[in-house]
Amino acid sequence: MPCGYWLLFFYQLSSLISHLSSLNSQLSSLNSQLLSYKQQILQILSKVGERGISVRMLSKHVYNMNCTLFSQPDPQAVHRAVQQYLLCNAKSKHPLVERTERWGCYRLSKRGKAYVNRLA
Questions:
Q1: pTM above 0.70, yes or no
Q2: Separation between Cα atoms, residue 84 and residue 19, nearest integer Å
Q3: How buried is 99 (Cβ within 10 angstroms: 0-12 exposed, 13-18 middle, 19+ buried)?
Q4: Which residues contact 108 (CB under 8 A, 6 or more apart)?
Q5: What is the pLDDT of residues 56-106, one digit of tens each?
C-alpha cells in the first residue's frame, strides 16, 4: 500500500477521534443539564403540594429558572426533557413523581417527598 493511503487513513482517523471527543463533551454537558433539570423539577413539585402541576406549567418554570441575560435554552427542548423525566419516573418501580387525578398533572409521591426533604 502506498504511503499516501496511510497518511489519508491516519488523517481521517484523527478527525474522527476529535469529532468523537467533541460529541463526548456535548453529551456530558447535556447530562449535567438534565441533572439540574431533575433537581429543579423536584424543587418545583415540592413547592406545589398535593394538587400537582401541569407539565406545561412545570416546563415554563424550569425554562425560566434556566434563562439568563446571555443565554436562553430552547423552550421545546426543555419541555421535552421535563416531559421525558416525568413519564419515565412516574412509570418506574419506585417513582419520585406520580400522576394526579387531573390529566397531564404530576406531584411528588411520598417517596419523592422524603427524597426532597433529605436533600434540603
A1: no
A2: 28
A3: middle
A4: 42, 45, 46, 96, 97, 98, 116
A5: 999 999 999 988 888 888 999 999 999 999 998 888 888 889 998 888 899
Grid coordinates standing for 4? Answer: 499516501
Closest to 42 (Cα-Cα) out of 103, 100, 101, 98: 98
Residue 82: half-sphere exposure toward Cβ, Cα within 13 Å: 29
Q: Count of CB atoms within 10 A of residue 47's CB?
A: 11
How many C-beta atoms lie closer than 10 Å to residue 60's C-beta? 16
Would you list the DSSP string of 41-110?
HHHHHHHH-TT-EEHHHHHHHHHHHH--SS----HHHHHHHHHHHHHHHHTSSS-SEEE-SSTTEEEE-H
